[in-house]
Design a protein that fits this description.
The chain has 134 residues and is an alpha/beta fold. It has a single domain, classed as 5'-nuclease (Rossmann fold), CATH 3.40.50.1010. Helix 7 links the parallel strand 4 and strand 5.
Length: 134
């Protein structure tokens, strides 16, 4: 059986953008079953739109990234099933709490590029950029 992981919003965004951290996320999730709360795609879409509005993405890149986002082959879990327990996690932002609750329920690690979230949830794997080989 393939080991599962939960992918949270920051790591999902880095993965889509192809940042150095995103390339490390890609390697981390390769060959594993990836789970997301179904709100994740909306959160990533909001972030992509903000990057576009801030002039950091062209219209063509925005469209390509949104299409990749929609097609991402991750197993989505209904946020409504996680919401009551996530709201009770007062120390976390709600989006993060939904991901943490999913990680808890599935008993699998949470993949993040957010050091604050990684420090708050002991089952987190903080994924950072791998230094380029010289």
């Amino acid at each position: 059986m393939t080991e599962g992981l939960v992918l949270e919003t920051a790591a999902f965004l880095d993965l889509l953008l192809g940042t150095a951290e995103g390339r490390s996320v890609r390697e981390t999730i390769r060959g594993r079953e990836v789970h997301v709360a179904d709100h994740e795609k909306v959160g990533v879409g909001v972030a992509l739109r903000a990057l576009y509005r801030g002039g950091q993405l062209s219209p063509a890149v925005l469209e390509r990234k949104v299409r990749q986002l929609v097609a991402a082959p991750f197993r989505a879990h209904p946020a409504r099933e996680l919401l009551v327990a996530a709201v009770a996690r007062h120390d976390l932002r709600l989006g993060d709490a939904l991901c943490v609750e999913l990680s808890y329920r599935l008993a699998v690690p949470l993949i993040t590029t957010d050091s604050r979230l990684a420090a708050a949830w002991p089952r987190s794997w903080l994924v950072t950029a791998v230094p380029a080989e010289s």
